[in-house]
Amino acid sequence: MINSKQKLVVIGNGMAGINTVEQILKLTDKYEITVLGNEPHPNYNRIMLSYVLEGSKTIDDIILNDLQWYADQGITLYTGKMVKSIDGENKKIRTEDGLEIDYDVALVATGSQSFILPIPGKELPGVIGFRDIADCSAMLEAAKTFKKAAVIGGGLLGLEAAKGLVNLGMDVTVVHLMEDLMERQLDREASAMLKTELERQGIKFAMQMQTAEVYGQDRVQGLRFSDGSELEADLVVMAVGIKPNIQVAVQSGMETNRGIVVDDLMRTSVPDVYAVGECVEHRGTCYGLVAPLFEQGSVIAKHLAGADTEGYMGSVVSTKLKISGVDVFSAGEFITQPEHTVIVAKDEWKRTYKKVLLRENKIVGTVLFGDVSESASLQKYVRQQTLMTDEIYGQIMGTGCSKDGAKSLSAETMADDEIVCGCNGVTKKTIVDAINDNGLTTVDEIKACTGATRSCGGCKPVVEQILQYVLGDSFKTSAKQGICGCTTLSRDEIVEAIKTKGLTTTREVMNVLGWHNDEGCSKCRPALNYYLGMINPDTYENEGDSRFVNERLHANIQKDGTFTVVPRMYGGVTTPEDLKKIADVSLKYNVKVVKVTGGQRLDLIGVRKEDLPKVWEELDMPSGYAYAKSLRTVKTCVGSQFCRFGTQDSMGMGEVLERKFERLDFPAKFKLAVNGCPRNCAESCTKDIGIVGNDGGWEIFIGGNGGIKARLADSLCKVKTDAELIDIVGSVMQLYRETGQYLERTSEWVERIGLEEIQKAVVHDTDHRQALVERIEFALQQVEDPWKKIINDEDSRKNLFEVVTPSIV
């Protein structure tokens, strides 16, 4: 049988090329598709590399289309193939290793590469870009050995690289030529706020510095600047821009400038050869952001499928920063000019900034910092240059409501072809059609069907808005999501069923409540284990198999398979005797690193699994629970015992609280801090519970977080006595234990429950507070130190920690 399909060959296996293929597959099946990629990986999400670098995702997590997807679609994939040229006359594509492939239509999607500054020393080992998995892997490897990193470039990529390296434990300095960070996307105000926030997260900056040379012998040792000053660095990341990959086009005789020149249908100067993505130059512009690339791919897909298309007219560029704890967005014009009308709001307490620029009353640009919830709406308004109205003003400035009193949904006014998920190029229409055609009722179902939210998750609020818009009145009942894919039941429904039905084990819960997956999953099993233990602390027997590996083994596993042991130091205070034991044990068991933590304790890093029980026994100190969803640390300043400014005994109170509440399970890790005065040296504002001493007693703060989703704590109340302080701290803890969702930090819990509701429960309603205190006291009577339990249990030591060498028959 003669194959009537046309041969489409795609040069490049990145996001732009494969997204174009996905759009073609939705419109037509007339092509036999071959993909040539020069990397050894299937298609992955390049813009998620910063998350891999910072450790919140793995390389497997950012794969968009695995190898099975190519097979299922009938696509022939070649990885590790570098294309040499396209023979337009004979319609053949040739690779560097001699492979020759015929085509009817070719698509060039070769992307871009990091621009490396043409300065002396750029070729030294340790100088890399930040563009692909290989670069990311090189940084991860370097961080194991080297400590000082310099990132050249204070733009989007540079800041993402810097934060990732900080998270890997490196001392990182961003070197930037200009006066402001991200000066191509942000105004001076937002740039200054961004710099302050990133400094708070540990990044250093060398602004208005021009790098003249990379110096070093066998490896990079540092940077030398044009003013003669130097910066030590044993890793240098160049993130000063990107350069379109046009080598194939040049070798093939295509018209090129900075990029491969294309027309509005994305056609190159060679017949039947198209180009898409960062390698392209359209109307004199090269785009380095993902949304324009998907818009280009949509044009190509429609054209090749024979559908009507107006062609690609260019894109309004928008930028969103992907750094944990930092939300930044800009679109269109952002620098104020005399002809602009400016709408601006700045909140230094909440660390938010919002600016909208108008020209002749049309919305032409915006900058958002801290709160980017209106980014989708504003991007549309900027692209369409919408006239400002009172209704739009109310919407974007947070004062507008619809007729029924609810804030208007931006999803209702979005165009069908507007891209909602920039990471995966999913439009509003795709989501709406998926909901209507497949009866979808949850965001997770939309993610599985369309890919929206499966990457960075930044579009999830808009996807939820679209879901609510489509489902209308049925949204609240239909859109309920379970705690995982194994069940449609919520946390509250499961807890209520455990209480009313007397359920006692995770398997019993799953059987009685009709789990879709009989074995559960890694999300629900630990959650059920926690809920059962919280409800019945005296009778429930902990199920070790339902806990994460760190909690099963009572130590933090490291990337090389060894473990970190963290003994308890109450309130951050220790003794010479305990320090000597730590030193002796570290030497005896060849501990690789002893590190002082941010929680005022000592990490013993690099303990072998089989040595853990012996290390615990010889330390003869309680577990610091650094691995657990439990009370981690109570950080203290020296307080009134030693500080001339101290008004309260912070060290004494810190020790009392830590000894009282240690070992108790919580929905997520839990940290406290106690300050002896309002100078806040122990950083109470970023703790789950922060306590600040003053002349009249104590002030209690809750819901702080200095991690991935940074949040300043809210003031709960002021108390005069130590006894009242301990009771309210205990009641807050128990209320969180009883109402928190598993893995939900207090920063999220406070926002979900509401500060006023928590105050009512633990401050104003003294009877309710006392009941909470009694329940937490009862739970505390059931806990014991896990290290001692393992030491005294020969079977547990043997089953969990002894290494069994397999016999050879």
UniProtKB/TrEMBL annotation:
InterPro entries noted in UniProt: BFD-like_2Fe2S-bd_dom (IPR007419), BFD-like_2Fe2S-bd_dom_sf (IPR041854), FAD/NAD-bd_sf (IPR036188), FAD/NAD-binding_dom (IPR023753), FAD/NAD-linked_Rdtase_dimer_sf (IPR016156), NasD-like (IPR052034), NiRdtase/SiRdtase_haem-b_fer (IPR005117), Nit/Sulf_reduc_fer-like_dom_sf (IPR036136)
Keywords: 2Fe-2S, 4Fe-4S, FAD, Flavoprotein, Heme, Iron, Iron-sulfur, Metal-binding, Nitrate assimilation, Oxidoreductase
Binding site for siroheme: C681
Domain Nitrite/sulphite reductase 4Fe-4S stretches: 628-765
Start and end residues of each NADH-rubredoxin oxidoreductase C-terminal domain: 318-386
GO molecular-function term, one example from the UniProt record: NADP binding
Cofactor: siroheme; [2Fe-2S] cluster; FAD; [4Fe-4S] cluster
Keyword Transcription regulation: no
Domain FAD/NAD(P)-binding: 7-280
Classification via CDD domains: NirB_Fer2_BFD-like_1 (cd19943), NirB_Fer2_BFD-like_2 (cd19944)
Chain positions recorded as [4Fe-4S] cluster binding sites: C637, C643, C677, C681
Domain BFD-like [2Fe-2S]-binding per the UniProt entry, residue ranges: 419-468, 483-532
Cofactor-binding details, from the entry: Binds 1 siroheme per subunit.
Any GO BP: nitrate assimilation
Domain Nitrite/Sulfite reductase ferredoxin-like: 557-620
UniProt pathway annotation: Nitrogen metabolism; nitrate reduction (assimilation)
Domain of life: Bacteria
Family statement: Belongs to the nitrite and sulfite reductase 4Fe-4S domain family.
Name of this chain's protein: Nitrite reductase large subunit
Organism lineage: Bacteria, Bacillati, Bacillota, Bacilli, Bacillales
